[in-house]
Fold:
Amino acid sequence: MLTPQRAAVLATRLDLYVHEIPICLPCLSFVVFPLDSGDEHAARGAKVRFTPILWDEGLAEPATRALELARERGVQDAERALEDVQRAGPRTTIARAIVHVLALQLVAEMRARLN
Structure:
């Protein structure tokens, strides 16, 4: 399994955008709000709890496809991450890193609207 740091880097290189994936935004908000307030501990716990839910409700297919495309482009760690999700699905560092990136996209939108 990828280290959390390597998964985080890879997740930012995938072409995944929160509004293009059929996931429950209120569910994702359980990760968004702690990230927005800077509570990394609570955000980490929310990612562990909600990644399987988001994965099952629509994240699995687009995330797997994005990893396949990244592998085809030769992106570092994409092959390993793809193997991880095929073996363990949402209980992987890459799945949690993807949820983190999607949550950060919403945080950025919220902050932009406030300015």
